[in-house]
Amino acid sequence: MRRLLDSRLPGPAHAASSDAGVPRSELARATGLSVPTVGKVVAGMAAAGWLEEVAVDDSPDAAPGRPAKLVRLNRAVRRLLVIQLGVRHTRLAILPVAGPRDEGWATTFRTPAQAKEWQTALRQAARSLAISEPWCVALSLPGVVDEAAGRVLLSPNLHWTEGADFPALLGELWPVPLCAVQEIRALAMGHVAAEPGQRDFLLVDFGAGVGAAAVIDGRLYQSTLPMSGEIGHAPVAGNRRPCGCGAKGCLETLLSRRGLRQSFARHQRQKRVTWKTLFRHVEQHGVEAWLAESLNAAAGALAGA
Q1: pTM higher than 0.90
Q2: Euclidean distance between CA atoms 20 and 71, whole angstroms
Q3: Banded pLDDT at 63 (limits 50, 70, 90)
Q4: What is the 8-class DSSP label of residue 62?
């Protein structure tokens, strides 16, 4: 039902239409169910707080003298717990299922170095959200993620997450369903929601690592292997820098924040440089040879993708 309400229409009309709601008849056509059956499902989900009904006078389904009722995701009841597990920080928010686009994170803490420490910090941070029984937990994870199992298979920048039993860790805090998603794929899904007119793109994110996700015809591309989108571990000829994944020469050793600082420090003949110093230097001097080499390596990987 969520997918139908979120992606029923192509093109720029999507945002306005999904905000307004959809008639039961359209849900029936999309699902192949009868209108009475859809009505029962909608009534149950509305009673639980997942959906809400809105009256619209000019709907084509409206009967004479009576406003039609459209269905949309609930925007008021906040029972969806969202957690972003990042390499440096973990962020939490409690949201309605409609997911307002301008919502910010309610609380943030530095990501610890062990699973149990993270669970403890998560418990403490969640107290400020004043929610004891969320409907479900949505968890964004870095690295190579088996989303169905809620497990991280490989995380070069946050090794303790590899093999961590997140369903069990979170289940001890909130015994509710867990929805796990790889962080760059989550970012791509957010972009689709914010810009529904953009139906086909490759999103590449440069940060603690380098990751990518593809959207084709408005849908997130899902490969048969969880390595899909791991552009950061494409090998670069001539690059011998060791990567956290255990290999040498990966693209993210050049294009991550750490990799760029290393390249700049070598160019400046210094042991360490700050990101702010690097940023100001590029603003003043433009793309120099040390940076051009990394950008060209990125261009080759992107062209291959």
Answers
A1: no
A2: 8
A3: low
A4: P
Q: Is 183 exposed, middle or buried (0-12, 13-18, 19+ CB in 10 A)?
A: buried
> What whole-number distance in Å separates Cα of residue 47 and Cα of residue 89?
36
Q: For strand 136-141 and strand 80-85, is the pairing parallel, antiparallel, or unpaired?
A: parallel
Distance between alpha carbon 252 and the CA centroid of its chain, in Å?
A: 20
Structure tokens at 260: 């760029």
Phi, psi for residue 134 in degrees, rounded to 5: -70, 160
DSSP-derived 3-state class of residue 277: helix
CA dist list (Å): 281 to 109, 160, 256, 270, 288: 31, 35, 17, 14, 10
Tell me the backbone φ, ψ of residue 138, rounded to 5 degrees: -105, 125
Q: How confident is the model at residue 58 (pLDDT cuts 50, 70, 90)?
A: low
Beta carbons of 100 and 106 less than 8 angstroms apart: no
For residue 92, give the nearest of 140, 148, 133 by alpha carbon. 140
Looking at the predicted structure, is the pLDDT value of residue 190 above 80? yes
pLDDT at residue 2 greater than cutoff 60: no
**Dist. CA 94–CA 96, nearest whole Å:** 7
Cα(58)–Cα(62) distance, integer angstroms: 7
